[in-house]
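Help needed: design a sequence for this.
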């Protein structure tokens, strides 16, 4: 698998490259949880939970 060998992957449409995926090194400076301690955890929605019927309606996905 390319991701495991730290190789760059190109995705093309009609022979023209449209996406380039490059490996992220451990020293890339990317930090998850940047607002930890600033934003209360209770105010962050649980994105693994299914949407309610009202939320689905707001997204135009429910009758």
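Sure. Designed sequence:
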């Amino acid at each position: 698998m390319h991701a495991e060998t730290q190789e760059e992957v190109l995705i093309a449409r009609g022979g023209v490259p449209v996406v380039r995926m490059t490996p992220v090194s451990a020293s890339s400076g990317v930090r998850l949880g940047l607002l930890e301690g600033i934003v209360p955890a209770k105010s962050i929605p649980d994105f693994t939970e299914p949407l309610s019927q009202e939320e689905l309606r707001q997204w135009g996905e429910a009758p």
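The mean pLDDT is 81.
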